[in-house]
Amino acid sequence: MSIAPESGKALLSLYRRVLRSCATYPSKNRWRIYESIREEFRENSGLDPDLPETREKIKLAHQGLGQLRMYDAASLGG
Questions:
Q1: How many CB atoms lie under 10 A from the CB of residue 18?
Q2: Hey, is 3 helix, strand or coil?
Q3: What are the pLDDT digits (tens) for 17-74?
């Protein structure tokens, strides 16, 4: 089964959601993590979405978002 590449809009949306979730992450290193995410997305912004390596990076970003949301007070209803 082939995974369809994500559009630029979908990736931008993913980027924004990750950053928003990171901003509420309960850690002293929150802003360093935030900057690392920004840097990683910038470094990979020119990659071809059809390449397997790029798909793997997108998959990791989705997993990271899920992990960040576990600590997001808004997602927990608090």
A1: 21
A2: coil
A3: 999 999 888 889 999 999 999 999 999 989 988 899 999 999 999 999 999 888 876 5
